[in-house]
Amino acid sequence: MRKKIWIGGGIIALVMLMIGLAVWKKQTPDDILEGTRLTPRNLGETFTVSGSVDTVDRQTVHLQPDRGELKKIWVKAGQRVKPGDKLVEYENPTLRAEQEQVELQIRAARVKLNYLEKQKKNLGKPSTSAGAAAGSPMPGTTKDELNQQIELTRLELKQAEKQRELVRERIRRQVVTATIAGTVVEVNPRGGTGADATAPLVQVADLSKILVTANVSEFDVIKLKPGMGVDIRSEAMPDKSWTGKVERIADLPKAQGPEVGGGESQVLYPVEIRPNEALPFRIGTRLIVEIKVTGEQVNALPESAIVEEGDKFYVFVVENGKAVRKEVKIGQRNGEYVQVVSGLTAQETVLADPPKDLRPGEEVTVR
After folding, report:
1. How far apart are CA 41 and CA 302, in angstroms?
2. What distance, in Å, lies between the first and last C-alpha atoms of the chain?
3. CB 206 within 8 A of CB 57
4. What CA–CA distances, in Å, run from 186 to 119, 200, 209, 252, 354?
5. How far apart are CA 225 and CA 229, in angstroms?
6. Each residue's pLDDT tens digit, 57-92
């Protein structure tokens, strides 16, 4: 009898334990789901492109055979220059001959004009041999004829003077001077010839004004606006980063990217980025540029709250303690949040991360 009592007591205790476990399990935090609501967010995205260090002000001097033969490069790499300093000089002996020739034409035109004006002044005065030598008009010469000759001579003089200015300008162009204050960053005596046919003779850069240039695809450039934030990194210094902002977006493409899927090459647009601080890199250093595209404030939910089935999207709304599935229309996505365009109000509580096996109508507890 006592044995039966012990067995019965054990069964009752076991049943009570199971009931207690069920109640405890029902109250465990694992069954309490996270709730969320529509909140205004800026669903900006970030995309990464390659860039390089450049300068705001740079002067590049290429070989120009039309100026003459290269005579001398006046600067060395690393040298500081200011506007007006000589960089490169050409020589062209034929220019000096042209200058002498045009000077003679000017002198001849002035002598002729002086002679004709004296003839006009003496028109109508008695002719003497001495007067003829001094500029008396030829017998039968009229005033209209003299005026016409004077006008033609003045035109000849004006044309010769303009030609002289052109020759002088060509002579001035034989010396190429610095247009900016900066440092000579490149000197290449063979620039424009042989293997260096495309290389410049001299480059001057203002190293105090550094920027970063990046080539952005035609698909991403439409998202950019001046002032957008940028993070700058380098593989040479992976533990450091710098900030900057988009300063200028080119209106025309400048570079051609690699072919996409074997088709036409990608169109790229140069974008100038102004760093917020000095960069410890030389001109031309390759950089990793992360551009932060900002957008408008929109009502959004966490990405995890969206259930995607084919081309439709759903959320689970909590109504009277039960999960109710609602179809929604979505808009922008940035990988973390999704814009909800319609199908939901800001007052409704949504399951932030509904279980995969959740069915409509199931009871849920939300915190």
Report:
1. 10
2. 52
3. yes
4. 63, 8, 17, 28, 62
5. 10
6. 999 999 999 888 999 999 999 999 999 999 999 999
CA distance 137 to 122: 7
How far is C-alpha 206 from the geometric centre of its chain's CA atoms?
Answer: 18
Residue type, 139: P
3-state secondary structure of 142: coil
Cβ neighbours, 10 Å, residue 348: 16
Residues 89-107 have pLDDT tens digits of 999 988 888 989 999 999 9
- HSE-CB for 349 with a 13 A CA cutoff: 13
Q: Which of 4-18, 270-284, 287-301, 314-328 has the lowest mean pLDDT?
A: 4-18
Read off the amino acid at residue 196.
D
Owner of token pair 């204050």: 181
Tokens 């996505």 correspond to 333
Report which of 323, 298, 252 is spatially closest to residue 41, judged by C-alpha positions. Answer: 298
CA distances from 334 to 21, 43, 337 (A): 43, 6, 6
Q: Tell me the residue type at 216.
A: V
Q: What is the CA radius of gyration of the chain?
A: 43
62 and 203 in contact (C-beta within 8 Å)?
no
**Sign (positive or negative) of CA dihedral 43, 49, 53, 55:** negative
Are 136 and 125 in contact by the 8 Å Cβ rule? The answer is yes
Instruction: List pLDDT tens digits, range 161-200.
Output: 999 999 998 889 999 999 999 999 999 998 888 878 889 9
